[in-house]
Amino acid sequence: MTDVTHTLHLTVQHPHPGLALATVVGDVDVHTAPTLRSGALEIIQQGHPRLVLDLAPVGFCDSAGLSAIIGIWHAAREAGGSLSLAAVPDRLMRMLSMTGVDSLLPVHATTADAVAALTDSPPASANR
């Protein structure tokens, strides 16, 4: 059985103007999804409407987490931006596929690929 933690951290980098790369660390569930959503909305409101979520460190995501991701996608679009996902763990990728969310959001193998897709520049060294 998975040990679910009730803490979530976002680490944010700004690789290009208007673009933020947020690394999500922890489990995204009913307890932590509001933290993810509010943190991402704050990033968008601070003038970074193009957002990449690096999900490599996410150990678990439930329907509340999926709902938060969809809400972030809507907020980014309303701000004239976009949401992309990078380094999505297999278990979460299955959930995105089963729900059809993967057809709405760009999903990239690495954060470098996601940033490159949003900046029209070739990916730097592959990370995550």
From TrEMBL:
Residues 17-118 form the STAS domain. InterPro entries: Anti-sigma_ant (IPR003658), STAS_dom (IPR002645), STAS_dom_sf (IPR036513). It holds the Pfam family STAS. It comes from the Bacteria. NCBIfam families: ant_ant_sig (TIGR00377). Belongs to the anti-sigma-factor antagonist family. This is Anti-sigma factor antagonist. It comes from Streptomyces cinerochromogenes.
